[in-house]
Amino acid sequence: MFKRTLIITLLAISTAALAAEPKVDTAKLIGVLKSPEAPLKAKSDACRELAITGDPKAIPVLADLLSDAKLSHMARYALEPMEDESAGAALRDAMGNLKGQLQVGVINSIGARRDKKAVDALIKLLKGADQDAASAAIGALGKIATPKAIDALAGCRKAPPAKLQWAVADASLTAAEQLVAQGKTTEATAIYAELNAPAWPRQVRLGAFSGLLNADSAKAPDRIAEAINGKDAILRAVAIAKIATLKGDGISSQFASALPKLPAVAQVMLIDALAERNDPVARPAIVKAADHSAAAVRTAAIKALGRLGDEACAKLLCKRMVDGKTDPEKQAAKSSLRAINAKGVNAMLIKRMDAADSGLKIELINILIDRKAALATETLLAQASGKDPKVAAAAFKGLMRIGSPKEMPAILTLLTKLQDDTAKRNAQLAAIAVSRKITEPTKRADSVLDALKNAESTPAKCSLLAVLGGIGNAKAFDAVNAARKSNDPDICNAAVRALTVWPDATAVDTLLDIFASTKNPTHKALAFRGAVRLLSIPELDKGKALDGYKKLLAKAKQPGEIKLVLSGLSTIADPAALPMIRPYLSQKPVQKEATAALRKVSKALTVRPDDIIYTKFIKGVYGFEDQVVDVTSKIAARKNSAGTIDVTGKYNGLFGDPADREFKVLLITYELNGKQQTVKFIENTPFTMKLAGPKKADPPKKLSGEFKPLFDGKTLTGWKGRKSLWSVQDGAIVGQTSAAAALKHNDFLYTEKEYENFELTLSYKLVNHNSGVQIRSQVRDDFIITGYQADIAEKRYTGILYDEGRRGIIAKVKPEVVSKFIKPKEWNDYRIVCQGKEIKFWINGQPTISYTEKKASIPSKGVIAFQLHKGPPMKVLFKNIQIKELP
Amino acid sequence: MNDSSSNKVTRRSFLKGAAVGAVALPYAITSDALGGPNKAPASERIVFGGIGIRNRGMHDLRWLMRQKDVQFVAICDIQQAQRKRISSHVNSQYRNRDCKTYRDMREFLPARPDIDAVLIATGDRWHAMASITAMRAGKDVYTEKPSCMTIAEGQAVVETAERYGRIYQTGVQRVSEPNHVFAMEMARTGRLGKIHTAYAQIAPWNAAKMRHDWLPEEPEPAKEIVDWDMWLGPCPWRPYNKSYVRGGWRGHYDFHTSCIGEWGAHTFAQAQIGLSCENTSPVEYNYVDNDSGDGMTVRFANGVKMILSRGNKWWRGPCGERFDGTEGWAAAADGYSRPAVSDPSMLGEFKKVLSDYVARTGRALDHMRNLVDCIKSRRQTVANPTVMHRSMSTVHGANICMWLKRTLRYDPVKEEFINDQEANRLRSRAIRQPWRL
């Protein structure tokens, strides 16, 4: 728990967890405790360590400290938990020598240790002038509870001074508990009986009464009966509560017969207690109580019958379900029927359904379901094919819950015969649920496939296809795909629909195909929805999901379609989703969904959503429930020169803590396109607000100036480099080295012009090894360049800021972060902004480094260059190179 | 001594006759005493006092005062500003001047036999000792969580409540909230199959490691303003610094139960109830080498394991629990409109599961209401001393495991660690005089 260093030099010990090893050096701690110069805290801390290690060697020095006004408690802190007998001896000694509060503390520790050897000394303190010491001694004697201690307490009870009354009572009750635990019930009873006298305060009498019931089981029924018939409501309640657990013969019948004479309030409690005893003897009295004039009593009785009712009671409950005079009675009856454990209840409930109206049938079905009554499946099948749609629905739900594979054929038969759409749907759900109970997954669709083969009507086939879609195994997939080729358009539709509800990603490719190739607008729409749904399944590979969404977005035209894709995209926690979402931020019809999707993905990536646009920040409120503070000005003050408000770090640190450690929320009100919106950020979520300038907000990071191409796509005009290594092919600059002509040092292709403040965008493709983009760099001999480099590497350095030929790595980004959004061996987009002292990189829209140059001697103007790295033969390509110069 | 305003004999109390401590009626007899549509008649009201009410306590107080059959009549606090603030609030709510103020609970409790129960919302260090003191004085208790600092304190609360037949509720109010009740019931009634794992969320701030430093010493204020000695109460002495009394005690070993206790007081109770382990303790605490205890597995004798979890892995809100069984899972946390379940069709039973729970247990789905009902019926509350002690015991076990940096085994019947004397010594802390458990 403490750093072990510095104890000898007597500095205050600060935080650290207690190490299991190395072992605590007791000698050092003793040294601290003995030292006159050691500060109070150091000694206090030494006591804490000793409390854990319990080394008896420290006992003498701790014993000395018991008389120290400032350290006595901490000495006890260490001594009290020590098992060693000398700790007890030290405390007993101190008790004899100390006075006042220090003595009180020591007595309390002796009591906590239940130190039998201290009894004589404690008894001496009872008659002393110090009432605080006497009180403490009384408490200790109650805990220790040897016969001598108990005797002494008896003496105290005779005429306790007012100040000691509570302690005497408490100690006596404590001692009595221990006697009961030891089986000395007669002695305990005597103590409780004493304390049950009117001279004692009410809370003591209540405690004593409760104790009497425990200790004196023979007389308990009488005492309870007396209390039940008495005037004290609390005593009566305590007594009745005790009946639930009282041991002995005849208790249930005694109090069951007492039931009718009691006031309604007491009857309710007593019925509860009798129910808890689970003794059928009480049943007749409770059944009678189910007819009592007071509704509360009837309800309690009906509840109790759920616990100890028999078959006849079940019949009564069935009646009360319908004819109960109040709602609570009816509810209680249903509840009890669910729980009642008696023979023939299920059969009775099933039979009852014969004459029941639809409402009652549904209630009975629900009860049978909850009773997991396997017997009921036949009835459920019968009811499911009945005329009443509500009952049928309830029956199907029942089959879903308790149907077994045995019922599958019957369900399928039913399914093929049904006309009503809702009923068909329910039947399908039941079939699907039942199929899941077939343990072998490959067999789950078998009976459905059989039924499909034999089905005659188209509607029947369509229904069965829907079931296959819910089951979703390989055999089902084959059958559904085969059905797609049918000439019957209804069957085709059903097959496509089945694919859209597939439980896993198996159907995704098929759906995308359908979407891309079909001319049937229904199929196209179905496939669209189905694909969106399946692409967001967590098990699907993110790359595949994004590809799928790309395909869908390419064809999605309606806002409804786009919104659907955006909502699917929002579940993909991958940085590549962000550039897919961004174009829609400026499309009014889908702006809200795009913003929400962006936020959700960013949050999932724990990447700062620095592209969220708010035109105007209005208000910020931070807190929990009604403990909130207005933080508008604090947030507004964070606006920086770029016109954004960045909120990062711990909210409590930024705004103060308004709600004492509750989990707080920051509510931001902002205006977007003239409309007020709010957004909630969970405590400590970093976020950025971009505030609009005088013009309407544009897509982010629009700096002044125009982009100009640095590369014409055909020639190396404007660039200098070795023709043997650098060329233009297929619209890209290609750098390539060979084994035959291995480089002696890194080689570069560089711009003729120099640039200082700019935004540079380009695409690169690294086939292998290592490259990079130099900026603000200096030209040396032999096509050598030195200066800032935006690194590109096969293994780990892509995205870092490397100072080539100068300081080496000067800004890093974790490879595992970057690897999430770059595509190795494929085209990636680099974006580089140099402005004054700031250098920032993005790859594929994701920030990698942000650097501020502190060294004044580093030049800020220089060429842009591409690198070929020495080592193994390598190839790198660059294209779409554009630059926008900045002021 | 009492705040001077409480000694004024008002016209009402003069009319009543005895100034203090006479009858089991609310202190003020006004026409209000007859009750009304939103208030039970005075004779049926449970009379409450408060000990240590500040931020969280204020929330509890408002909740309490919304009950139709409760009257709040007194506040005991070691800080003068708080005495003023709470009594003003109460008086403005009742439109009278009857709320009395006290500084020392040892004077307050015996002086008010008219008070049936107390709301205790002091800092964590005081919860057990104040509850015990109140119950010894014949009061029922609602206390904020975490309700004890050690295993020994928890045991003492259980014994004291039993000894005096008192009704007690610890402030883990989520065990009475619908979403959590649903999740716990789904686990308990077998609808998730056989439960094999539960997850309990621990707080994302602070660590399991605790502070042992002292804040810089400042001059102690007058006792009437801030009674520093009473603020410390049972805890080891340290010099005064105003930060402590303004809530800056979290993270300190003497006053707090770490990030594990901060939410574990809630979530372990929620989890253990769902696991039907609310009357027992784990048999094993498996040490994890990190700052917070995140990922620690504790195992119960019936084979079920509970995993401590920090952050948003299993929940999208705070103070969550989750149950995983052979047939599905269910979870709840703050901010959920409905519980999270493995199969949406389970939510079709939401209302039914809750109504069955209410019918079976008779409990209100409102933690404060449950307490007031139980004060009247003398039945055990949902978050009674045993539930409190056994869930806090798990908190303490987990903390001790982190502090000693080793796996621990525990005997839930003897309530001892097995073959680990150091862990056993950490089950209790010597109480500073004059207080005693």
Task: Provide an overview of this structure.
- The complex is a heterodimer of chains A (887) and B (437).
- Chain A is of the alpha+beta class.
- Helix content of chain A is 48%, strand content 15%.
- Among the domains of chain A are: 233-343; 618-636 and 645-690, no CATH class; 708-885, Jelly Rolls, CATH 2.60.120.560.
- Chain A has 39 helices and 21 strands.
- The longest helix of chain A is centred in the first third of the chain and has 17 residues, at 165-181.
- Chain B is of the alpha/beta class and 437 residues long.
- Chain B has two domains: 4-173, NAD(P)-binding Rossmann-like Domain (Rossmann fold, 3-Layer(aba) Sandwich); 178-208 and 256-425, Dihydrodipicolinate Reductase, domain 2, CATH 3.30.360.
- Chain B is 34% helix and 15% strand.
- Chain B has helices spanning 11-16, 55-65, 80-94, 105-111, 127-136, 151-164, 178-188, 228-232, 242-245, 258-274, 350-361, 367-377, 385-404, 421-425, and strands at residues 46-51, 70-76, 100-102, 117-120, 140-143, 168-170, 195-202, 284-285, 297-299, 305-310, 321-325, 328-332, 340-341, 408-411, 416-417.
- In chain B, the strands form two sheets. In chain B, strands 13-12-11-7-10-9-8-14-15 form a nine-stranded mixed sheet. In chain B, strands 3-2-1-4-5-6 form a six-stranded parallel sheet, sandwiched between helices.
- The two termini of chain B are 24 Å apart.
- At the A-B interface, helix 2, helix 4, helix 6, helix 8 and helix 10 of A face helix 2, helix 6, helix 11, helix 13 and helix 14 of B.
Summarize the topology.
The complex is a heterodimer of chains A (887) and B (437).
Chain A: H1 26-34, H2 40-53, H3 59-65, H4 72-79, H5 85-97, H6 100-112, H7 119-126, H8 131-144, H9 147-158, H10 165-181, H11 185-195, H12 202-215, H13 220-229, H14 233-243, H15 251-258, H16 264-277, H17 283-289, H18 295-308, H19 311-323, H20 327-339, H21 345-352, H22 358-370, H23 377-384, H24 389-402, H25 408-417, H26 421-435, H27 446-454, H28 458-471, H29 474-484, H30 489-500, H31 508-517, H32 521-535, H33 542-555, H34 559-569, H35 577-581, H36 591-604, E1 616-624, E2 627-630, H37 632-636, E3 644-647, H38 651-655, E4 665-672, E5 675-682, E6 687-690, E7 708-709, E8 719-720, E9 726-729, E10 732-736, E11 747-751, E12 758-766, E13 770-779, E14 785-793, E15 801-804, E16 808-811, H39 815-818, E17 828-835, E18 838-843, E19 846-852, E20 863-868, E21 875-885
Antiparallel strand pairs in A: 1-2, 1-4, 3-6, 4-5, 7-21, 8-11, 9-10, 10-21, 11-20, 12-17, 12-21, 13-14, 13-20, 14-15, 15-16, 17-18, 18-19
Chain B: H1 11-16, E1 46-51, H2 55-65, E2 70-76, H3 80-94, E3 100-102, H4 105-111, E4 117-120, H5 127-136, E5 140-143, H6 151-164, E6 168-170, H7 178-188, E7 195-202, H8 228-232, H9 242-245, H10 258-274, E8 284-285, E9 297-299, E10 305-310, E11 321-325, E12 328-332, E13 340-341, H11 350-361, H12 367-377, H13 385-404, E14 408-411, E15 416-417, H14 421-425
Parallel strand pairs in B: 1-2, 1-4, 2-3, 4-5, 5-6, 7-10
Antiparallel strand pairs in B: 7-11, 8-9, 8-14, 9-10, 11-12, 12-13, 14-15
Helix pairs in contact in B: 5-6, 6-13, 7-10, 7-11, 10-13
